Amino acid sequence: MKGLREYFLKKTDNISFIEVKPDSMVFIKDYKIGSEVPLPLIVNELISEIKTGTAKDEVKVSSIINGMIYIIGADPGFAFCQQYKKIVYHYDEKIEDYILYMGLKKVNENAFEDGIVWLRALYHINSKNLMGKYNYALALEEKARRLFTVNNKMGSVFLRSSTNVFEEIINESPSFDLAYYKLGYHYKNSQQYVKSSLMWERYIQLGKDTEMLEEIRENLETIQDDVIYEEGYNLILSGNPKAGLEKLLPLKERYVDWWNLFFMIGLGYRQIGMYEEAIIEFETVLDFVPDQVEALNELGLCQAFIGKYSEAISNFTRAIELKPKDYEIRCNRGMAYLQINDIENAEKDINTAYEQCSTDEITISCKQELEKMKGMA
Fold first, then answer.
1. All CATH 1.25.40.10 domain ranges in the chain, comma separated
2. What are the tens digits of pLDDT across the range 140-191?
3. Regarding the domain delimited by 134-222, which CATH topology (the fold level of the hierarchy) does it fall under?
4. In this structure, are residues 307 and 298 in contact, taking their beta carbons and an 8 Å threshold?
Protein backbone atom coordinates (compact mmCIF):
# COMPACT_ATOMS: atom_id res chain seq x y z
CA MET A 1 0.00 0.00 0.00
CA LYS A 2 1.35 3.39 -1.02
CA GLY A 3 2.71 5.29 1.95
CA LEU A 4 3.08 2.20 4.11
CA ARG A 5 6.09 0.94 2.17
CA GLU A 6 7.81 4.32 2.42
CA TYR A 7 7.15 4.47 6.15
CA PHE A 8 8.80 1.12 6.78
CA LEU A 9 11.66 1.75 4.36
CA LYS A 10 12.76 4.60 6.61
CA LYS A 11 13.32 1.99 9.31
CA THR A 12 16.26 0.65 7.31
CA ASP A 13 18.21 3.65 8.63
CA ASN A 14 18.45 1.55 11.79
CA ILE A 15 20.44 -1.13 9.94
CA SER A 16 24.18 -1.38 9.46
CA PHE A 17 26.01 -4.06 7.49
CA ILE A 18 29.14 -6.03 8.38
CA GLU A 19 31.74 -6.04 5.65
CA VAL A 20 33.03 -9.56 5.02
CA LYS A 21 36.38 -9.96 3.27
CA PRO A 22 36.14 -11.11 -0.36
CA ASP A 23 36.13 -14.89 -0.82
CA SER A 24 35.51 -15.35 2.90
CA MET A 25 32.77 -17.48 4.40
CA VAL A 26 30.57 -17.01 7.44
CA PHE A 27 28.84 -19.96 9.05
CA ILE A 28 25.60 -19.79 10.97
CA LYS A 29 25.43 -23.25 12.43
CA ASP A 30 26.38 -25.24 9.33
CA TYR A 31 24.79 -22.80 6.88
CA LYS A 32 27.52 -21.35 4.67
CA ILE A 33 27.15 -17.66 3.77
CA GLY A 34 29.35 -16.17 1.06
CA SER A 35 30.96 -12.73 1.20
CA GLU A 36 28.47 -11.44 -1.37
CA VAL A 37 25.66 -11.67 1.22
CA PRO A 38 25.56 -8.56 3.45
CA LEU A 39 25.15 -9.29 7.15
CA PRO A 40 22.80 -6.79 8.82
CA LEU A 41 22.89 -5.51 12.39
CA ILE A 42 20.33 -3.39 14.23
CA VAL A 43 22.05 -0.13 15.14
CA ASN A 44 20.07 0.70 18.27
CA GLU A 45 20.74 -2.81 19.63
CA LEU A 46 24.48 -2.24 19.19
CA ILE A 47 24.26 1.14 20.91
CA SER A 48 22.34 -0.43 23.79
CA GLU A 49 24.97 -3.14 24.18
CA ILE A 50 27.74 -0.55 24.20
CA LYS A 51 25.95 1.53 26.84
CA THR A 52 25.35 -1.48 29.06
CA GLY A 53 28.88 -2.82 28.55
CA THR A 54 27.68 -6.10 27.04
CA ALA A 55 29.20 -5.48 23.59
CA LYS A 56 31.77 -8.10 22.50
CA ASP A 57 34.69 -7.93 20.14
CA GLU A 58 33.01 -10.58 18.02
CA VAL A 59 29.50 -10.02 16.73
CA LYS A 60 27.04 -12.56 18.11
CA VAL A 61 25.22 -14.74 15.60
CA SER A 62 21.95 -13.83 17.33
CA SER A 63 22.61 -10.16 16.52
CA ILE A 64 22.95 -11.00 12.82
CA ILE A 65 19.76 -13.06 12.94
CA ASN A 66 17.95 -10.15 14.59
CA GLY A 67 19.27 -7.88 11.86
CA MET A 68 17.96 -10.20 9.15
CA ILE A 69 14.54 -10.34 10.78
CA TYR A 70 14.46 -6.56 11.14
CA ILE A 71 15.34 -5.85 7.53
CA ILE A 72 12.72 -8.33 6.28
CA GLY A 73 10.18 -6.30 8.25
CA ALA A 74 11.49 -2.94 7.13
CA ASP A 75 12.11 -3.79 3.48
CA PRO A 76 10.67 -7.17 2.39
CA GLY A 77 11.71 -6.35 -1.18
CA PHE A 78 15.41 -6.19 -0.24
CA ALA A 79 17.49 -8.31 -2.64
CA PHE A 80 18.70 -10.79 0.02
CA CYS A 81 15.47 -11.26 1.96
CA GLN A 82 14.72 -14.68 0.48
CA GLN A 83 18.15 -15.88 1.53
CA TYR A 84 17.71 -14.33 4.97
CA LYS A 85 14.48 -16.31 5.39
CA LYS A 86 16.32 -19.57 4.68
CA ILE A 87 19.06 -18.62 7.12
CA VAL A 88 16.75 -17.73 10.02
CA TYR A 89 14.79 -20.97 9.62
CA HIS A 90 18.07 -22.90 9.52
CA TYR A 91 19.20 -21.09 12.67
CA ASP A 92 16.01 -22.00 14.54
CA GLU A 93 13.17 -24.07 13.11
CA LYS A 94 10.88 -22.35 15.63
CA ILE A 95 12.04 -18.88 14.63
CA GLU A 96 8.43 -17.76 14.04
CA ASP A 97 7.64 -18.21 17.75
CA TYR A 98 10.69 -16.13 18.63
CA ILE A 99 9.75 -13.33 16.21
CA LEU A 100 6.18 -13.20 17.52
CA TYR A 101 7.40 -13.15 21.12
CA MET A 102 9.92 -10.37 20.47
CA GLY A 103 7.45 -8.35 18.40
CA LEU A 104 4.80 -8.44 21.12
CA LYS A 105 7.38 -7.80 23.83
CA LYS A 106 8.61 -4.68 22.08
CA VAL A 107 5.09 -3.44 21.30
CA ASN A 108 4.10 -3.83 24.95
CA GLU A 109 7.30 -2.48 26.48
CA ASN A 110 7.54 1.02 24.98
CA ALA A 111 9.40 -0.06 21.85
CA PHE A 112 6.35 0.04 19.59
CA GLU A 113 8.16 1.24 16.46
CA ASP A 114 10.58 -1.68 16.61
CA GLY A 115 7.82 -4.10 17.55
CA ILE A 116 5.69 -3.34 14.51
CA VAL A 117 8.71 -3.99 12.27
CA TRP A 118 9.20 -7.41 13.89
CA LEU A 119 5.54 -8.30 13.47
CA ARG A 120 5.66 -7.17 9.86
CA ALA A 121 8.71 -9.39 9.39
CA LEU A 122 6.74 -12.42 10.58
CA TYR A 123 3.90 -11.47 8.23
CA HIS A 124 6.31 -11.52 5.28
CA ILE A 125 8.25 -14.58 6.45
CA ASN A 126 5.09 -16.67 6.76
CA SER A 127 1.78 -15.09 5.84
CA LYS A 128 0.02 -18.29 6.92
CA ASN A 129 0.96 -17.73 10.57
CA LEU A 130 -2.45 -16.54 11.74
CA MET A 131 -1.45 -15.34 15.19
CA GLY A 132 1.43 -13.43 13.66
CA LYS A 133 -0.88 -11.95 11.06
CA TYR A 134 -3.53 -11.08 13.68
CA ASN A 135 -1.04 -9.30 15.94
CA TYR A 136 0.44 -7.44 12.97
CA ALA A 137 -3.07 -6.23 12.09
CA LEU A 138 -3.54 -5.11 15.71
CA ALA A 139 -0.25 -3.21 15.59
CA LEU A 140 -1.26 -1.49 12.34
CA GLU A 141 -4.56 -0.52 13.96
CA GLU A 142 -2.76 0.88 17.02
CA LYS A 143 -0.38 2.84 14.79
CA ALA A 144 -3.40 4.28 12.97
CA ARG A 145 -4.95 5.31 16.30
CA ARG A 146 -1.74 7.09 17.35
CA LEU A 147 -1.55 8.94 14.04
CA PHE A 148 -5.21 9.98 14.18
CA THR A 149 -4.58 11.36 17.67
CA VAL A 150 -2.12 13.87 16.20
CA ASN A 151 -4.25 14.48 13.06
CA ASN A 152 -1.77 12.73 10.78
CA LYS A 153 -3.44 11.64 7.52
CA MET A 154 -1.20 8.56 7.38
CA GLY A 155 -3.53 7.11 9.99
CA SER A 156 -6.00 6.16 7.27
CA VAL A 157 -3.26 4.30 5.38
CA PHE A 158 -2.42 2.17 8.41
CA LEU A 159 -6.09 1.58 9.19
CA ARG A 160 -6.84 0.39 5.64
CA SER A 161 -3.85 -1.91 5.79
CA SER A 162 -5.03 -3.28 9.14
CA THR A 163 -8.48 -3.92 7.66
CA ASN A 164 -6.91 -5.70 4.69
CA VAL A 165 -4.92 -8.02 6.95
CA PHE A 166 -7.97 -8.88 9.07
CA GLU A 167 -9.82 -9.65 5.82
CA GLU A 168 -6.97 -11.93 4.75
CA ILE A 169 -7.36 -13.81 8.05
CA ILE A 170 -11.06 -14.60 7.63
CA ASN A 171 -10.50 -15.58 3.99
CA GLU A 172 -7.82 -18.05 5.04
CA SER A 173 -9.41 -19.15 8.31
CA PRO A 174 -13.20 -18.59 8.38
CA SER A 175 -13.37 -19.70 12.02
CA PHE A 176 -10.92 -17.10 13.39
CA ASP A 177 -13.46 -15.31 15.59
CA LEU A 178 -11.38 -12.33 16.76
CA ALA A 179 -10.87 -11.12 13.20
CA TYR A 180 -14.66 -10.84 12.78
CA TYR A 181 -14.86 -8.95 16.05
CA LYS A 182 -12.30 -6.43 14.84
CA LEU A 183 -13.63 -6.12 11.30
CA GLY A 184 -17.05 -5.26 12.66
CA TYR A 185 -15.58 -2.15 14.25
CA HIS A 186 -13.49 -1.30 11.19
CA TYR A 187 -16.52 -1.44 8.90
CA LYS A 188 -18.68 0.46 11.36
CA ASN A 189 -16.13 3.26 11.62
CA SER A 190 -16.02 3.52 7.81
CA GLN A 191 -19.86 3.57 7.74
CA GLN A 192 -20.12 0.19 6.03
CA TYR A 193 -22.91 -0.92 8.33
CA VAL A 194 -24.13 -3.93 6.37
CA LYS A 195 -20.64 -5.43 6.35
CA SER A 196 -20.20 -4.54 10.01
CA SER A 197 -23.43 -6.34 10.85
CA LEU A 198 -22.38 -9.43 8.89
CA MET A 199 -19.03 -9.56 10.70
CA TRP A 200 -20.57 -9.23 14.13
CA GLU A 201 -23.30 -11.78 13.42
CA ARG A 202 -20.55 -14.20 12.43
CA TYR A 203 -18.62 -13.37 15.60
CA ILE A 204 -21.71 -14.20 17.68
CA GLN A 205 -21.74 -17.63 16.03
CA LEU A 206 -18.07 -18.25 16.75
CA GLY A 207 -17.11 -16.20 19.82
CA LYS A 208 -16.69 -17.67 23.27
CA ASP A 209 -16.02 -14.65 25.49
CA THR A 210 -19.27 -13.80 27.30
CA GLU A 211 -18.50 -10.12 27.83
CA MET A 212 -17.39 -9.59 24.24
CA LEU A 213 -20.48 -11.37 22.93
CA GLU A 214 -22.74 -9.12 24.99
CA GLU A 215 -20.81 -6.07 23.76
CA ILE A 216 -21.34 -7.10 20.14
CA ARG A 217 -25.05 -7.80 20.64
CA GLU A 218 -25.46 -4.28 22.00
CA ASN A 219 -23.50 -2.85 19.07
CA LEU A 220 -25.67 -4.72 16.59
CA GLU A 221 -28.77 -3.14 18.10
CA THR A 222 -27.32 0.37 17.81
CA ILE A 223 -26.53 0.04 14.08
CA GLN A 224 -29.75 -1.62 12.88
CA ASP A 225 -31.21 1.59 11.45
CA ASP A 226 -27.89 2.37 9.78
CA VAL A 227 -27.96 -1.08 8.20
CA ILE A 228 -31.51 -0.52 6.92
CA TYR A 229 -30.51 2.90 5.54
CA GLU A 230 -27.50 1.43 3.73
CA GLU A 231 -29.59 -1.38 2.27
CA GLY A 232 -32.21 1.14 1.16
CA TYR A 233 -29.88 3.55 -0.58
CA ASN A 234 -28.01 0.69 -2.25
CA LEU A 235 -31.31 -0.53 -3.71
CA ILE A 236 -32.09 2.96 -5.00
CA LEU A 237 -28.64 3.50 -6.45
CA SER A 238 -28.77 0.09 -8.14
CA GLY A 239 -32.05 0.93 -9.90
CA ASN A 240 -34.62 -0.61 -7.56
CA PRO A 241 -36.23 2.50 -6.05
CA LYS A 242 -39.50 0.87 -4.92
CA ALA A 243 -37.70 -1.69 -2.77
CA GLY A 244 -35.37 1.03 -1.53
CA LEU A 245 -38.25 3.27 -0.48
CA GLU A 246 -39.85 0.37 1.39
CA LYS A 247 -36.69 0.21 3.46
CA LEU A 248 -36.23 3.95 3.97
CA LEU A 249 -39.70 5.39 4.51
CA PRO A 250 -40.25 3.75 7.93
CA LEU A 251 -37.06 5.44 9.16
CA LYS A 252 -38.65 8.88 8.61
CA GLU A 253 -40.94 8.21 11.54
CA ARG A 254 -37.96 8.01 13.88
CA TYR A 255 -35.59 10.61 12.41
CA VAL A 256 -36.64 14.21 11.85
CA ASP A 257 -33.24 15.72 11.04
CA TRP A 258 -31.41 13.00 9.07
CA TRP A 259 -30.99 14.94 5.84
CA ASN A 260 -29.13 12.15 4.06
CA LEU A 261 -32.20 9.98 4.58
CA PHE A 262 -34.46 12.65 3.07
CA PHE A 263 -32.12 12.98 0.11
CA MET A 264 -32.19 9.26 -0.68
CA ILE A 265 -35.99 9.15 -0.31
CA GLY A 266 -36.21 12.10 -2.68
CA LEU A 267 -33.96 10.30 -5.15
CA GLY A 268 -36.16 7.21 -4.94
CA TYR A 269 -39.30 9.27 -5.57
CA ARG A 270 -37.66 11.02 -8.52
CA GLN A 271 -36.69 7.68 -10.07
CA ILE A 272 -40.30 6.44 -10.04
CA GLY A 273 -41.68 9.73 -11.34
CA MET A 274 -43.20 11.03 -8.09
CA TYR A 275 -41.72 14.48 -8.65
CA GLU A 276 -43.90 16.48 -6.26
CA GLU A 277 -43.04 14.12 -3.40
CA ALA A 278 -39.37 14.24 -4.36
CA ILE A 279 -39.42 18.06 -4.35
CA ILE A 280 -40.65 18.06 -0.75
CA GLU A 281 -37.77 15.79 0.29
CA PHE A 282 -35.09 17.84 -1.48
CA GLU A 283 -36.46 21.08 -0.09
CA THR A 284 -36.27 19.53 3.38
CA VAL A 285 -32.62 18.64 2.76
CA LEU A 286 -31.94 22.27 1.81
CA ASP A 287 -33.64 23.47 4.99
CA PHE A 288 -30.90 21.63 6.89
CA VAL A 289 -28.03 22.16 4.43
CA PRO A 290 -28.75 25.19 2.18
CA ASP A 291 -25.64 24.67 0.03
CA GLN A 292 -26.06 20.94 -0.60
CA VAL A 293 -25.16 20.90 -4.30
CA GLU A 294 -26.60 17.47 -5.14
CA ALA A 295 -29.94 18.40 -3.54
CA LEU A 296 -30.06 21.65 -5.53
CA ASN A 297 -29.40 19.71 -8.72
CA GLU A 298 -31.99 17.03 -7.95
CA LEU A 299 -34.55 19.67 -6.99
CA GLY A 300 -33.90 21.43 -10.29
CA LEU A 301 -34.40 18.19 -12.22
CA CYS A 302 -37.73 17.49 -10.51
CA GLN A 303 -38.93 21.04 -11.16
CA ALA A 304 -37.94 20.74 -14.81
CA PHE A 305 -39.85 17.45 -15.12
CA ILE A 306 -43.08 19.18 -14.03
CA GLY A 307 -42.52 22.25 -16.19
CA LYS A 308 -41.28 24.69 -13.54
CA TYR A 309 -38.32 25.71 -15.68
CA SER A 310 -37.62 29.10 -14.11
CA GLU A 311 -37.40 27.57 -10.64
CA ALA A 312 -35.26 24.75 -12.01
CA ILE A 313 -32.86 27.21 -13.66
CA SER A 314 -32.61 29.15 -10.41
CA ASN A 315 -31.61 26.03 -8.46
CA PHE A 316 -29.19 24.86 -11.18
CA THR A 317 -27.60 28.34 -11.14
CA ARG A 318 -27.09 28.18 -7.38
CA ALA A 319 -25.54 24.74 -7.72
CA ILE A 320 -23.18 25.95 -10.46
CA GLU A 321 -22.10 28.87 -8.29
CA LEU A 322 -21.12 26.36 -5.62
CA LYS A 323 -19.59 23.84 -8.05
CA PRO A 324 -18.63 25.67 -11.26
CA LYS A 325 -16.73 22.75 -12.83
CA ASP A 326 -19.62 20.29 -12.64
CA TYR A 327 -20.49 19.75 -16.31
CA GLU A 328 -23.56 17.63 -15.51
CA ILE A 329 -25.32 20.44 -13.63
CA ARG A 330 -24.39 22.92 -16.35
CA CYS A 331 -25.81 20.52 -18.92
CA ASN A 332 -29.02 20.23 -16.90
CA ARG A 333 -29.40 24.01 -16.85
CA GLY A 334 -28.70 24.15 -20.58
CA MET A 335 -31.52 21.69 -21.24
CA ALA A 336 -33.86 23.72 -19.03
CA TYR A 337 -33.00 26.80 -21.12
CA LEU A 338 -33.79 24.79 -24.24
CA GLN A 339 -37.26 24.03 -22.91
CA ILE A 340 -38.06 27.77 -22.76
CA ASN A 341 -36.43 28.37 -26.16
CA ASP A 342 -33.56 30.39 -24.70
CA ILE A 343 -31.14 29.05 -27.30
CA GLU A 344 -28.39 31.55 -26.50
CA ASN A 345 -28.03 30.56 -22.83
CA ALA A 346 -28.62 26.89 -23.62
CA GLU A 347 -25.76 26.99 -26.13
CA LYS A 348 -23.41 28.60 -23.61
CA ASP A 349 -24.12 25.98 -20.97
CA ILE A 350 -24.11 22.92 -23.19
CA ASN A 351 -20.98 23.94 -25.10
CA THR A 352 -19.19 24.67 -21.82
CA ALA A 353 -20.24 21.25 -20.47
CA TYR A 354 -19.04 19.62 -23.69
CA GLU A 355 -15.66 21.36 -23.40
CA GLN A 356 -15.36 20.10 -19.82
CA CYS A 357 -16.21 16.51 -20.78
CA SER A 358 -16.66 15.67 -24.45
CA THR A 359 -16.90 11.90 -23.81
CA ASP A 360 -19.90 11.91 -21.46
CA GLU A 361 -22.92 10.29 -23.15
CA ILE A 362 -25.44 12.68 -21.60
CA THR A 363 -23.40 15.70 -22.59
CA ILE A 364 -23.11 14.40 -26.13
CA SER A 365 -26.87 13.79 -26.21
CA CYS A 366 -27.54 17.32 -24.95
CA LYS A 367 -25.28 18.80 -27.62
CA GLN A 368 -27.09 16.80 -30.29
CA GLU A 369 -30.44 18.06 -28.98
CA LEU A 370 -29.08 21.61 -29.02
CA GLU A 371 -28.00 21.31 -32.67
CA LYS A 372 -31.37 19.84 -33.53
CA MET A 373 -33.20 22.78 -31.89
CA LYS A 374 -30.90 25.28 -33.61
CA GLY A 375 -31.67 23.65 -36.94
CA MET A 376 -35.38 24.06 -36.32
CA ALA A 377 -35.09 27.72 -35.28
1. 134-222
2. 999 999 999 999 999 999 999 999 999 999 999 999 999 999 999 999 999 9
3. 1.25.40
4. no
